[in-house]
Amino acid sequence: MKRLGDLMGIVLTMTLVSLFIISAILILLLGAQIYNSSVLGLENNFFSITPTLYIAEKFRQYEAGALTELGSINGTAALVFHQEYDGEDYETWIYTLENNLCELTVKSGSKINARAGQPIMEINEFTVNRLDNNLFEIIISGKGGQNSKLLLNARSEASNA
Amino acid sequence: MRKSNHSSLYMIELIIAILFFMLSCAASISFFAHAKQNTIHSKELSGSVLCMTSAAETVKAVNGNADKVSRILLGKKINDRVYVYYDNDFKVVDELKKMNYILSIETNIEDDMLVSNISMTGKKGVINKIEVKKYLDTIGG
């Protein structure tokens, strides 16, 4: 009888300890999963939204007296902002080169060397379309594979080029 | 007798330890749930800001023309309001079944001012809303 009591005590203790260990593991797994999903979400947002907002800022920067148009470098789509500075016309090109969003400012009419541009951020894909006269559609696929789309209105006259 | 007392004390200690552990678990789970909610809310805000910015830029580009806004944003025009339905990833959807968020655009012209109220609503209510204004005198520069 005493042995049975001891055995029951051991079984109860082992059950409690097992419960303790299983709960600890479950809590750890749950925490890790939530942390992982948060970090993944933040990374996806960062890699897709940041370059999109960078281009939006370019639109704001060149909205006064500038001209915005679509261009092409090495067969890939590009955005071109024209602006006059100190009596000279300059062009700022936004384009992709080897999975990087790049920016290059040159004097108007100069030969464009895509490799001379400044890499801004790593992206998968950059697409730009004109939907209306002044309305541009920017689609960026970030490094994490998530797409972000933004429509931007060029306040200045958009070229029909 | 002494052995039995030791065993009981050990059991009580273990039970108290597990009790504290369970309380900590409950607190942790509540923190995790809160963190998850914050992540979802953050994702909703990021997604809605992009969609609403696009809507605001479109409204300004077409001077509030509801038909054009509806066509460009792939939405539906109902009683001079434009509604755009989005799924969980903020992609435009046609079917109400797949919809998780609604973008609503209501545009009015007050004197020479174009005023557009844009709001994004989720299942738990309004996520974000903005008011867009444009002087119609500025049309064509």
Question: Can you walk me through this structure?
Answer:
- The complex is a heterodimer of chains A (about 160) and B (about 140).
- Chain A is α+β, with helices and mostly antiparallel strands and about 160 residues long.
- Helices cover about 35% and strands about 40% of the residues of chain A.
- Chain A has one helix spanning about 1-60; strands at about 65-75, 75-85, 90-95, 100-105, 120-130, 135-140, 145-155.
- A seven-stranded antiparallel β-sheet of chain A has the order 1-2-3-4-5-6-7, covered by helices on one side.
- In chain A, strand 3 and strand 4 form a beta hairpin.
- The longest helix of chain A has about 60 residues, at about 1-60.
- The radius of gyration of chain A is 28 Å and the shape is rod-shaped.
- Chain B has about 140 residues and is an alpha+beta fold.
- Chain B has two helices and five strands, in the order ααβββββ.
- In chain B, helix 1 (about 1-60) packs across helix 2 (about 65-75).
- The longest helix of chain B has about 60 residues, at about 1-60.
- The interface of A and B includes residues 12, 13, 19, 42 and 133 of A.
Short recap of the structure:
With 161 residues, chain A is an alpha+beta fold. Chain A contains 1 helix and 7 strands. Chain A has one helix at residues 2-61, and strands at residues 67-73, 76-85, 88-97, 100-107, 118-130, 135-142, 147-153.
Which pair of protein chains has the largest interface, and what are the residue counts? A-B, 35 and 32 residues
Oligomer: heterodimer
- What is the beta-strand fraction of chain A? 35-45%
The topology string of helices and strands of chain B comes to HHEEEEE
SSE succession of chain A: HEEEEEEE
Please give the count of helices of chain B: 2
Q: Please tell me how large the radius of gyration of chain A is.
A: 28 Å
Outline of chain A = rod-shaped
Average pLDDT of chain A, rounded to a whole number, is: 85
Beta-strand proportion of chain B: 25-35%
Strand order of the largest sheet of chain B: 1-2-3-4-5
Q: How much is the average pLDDT of chain B?
A: 87
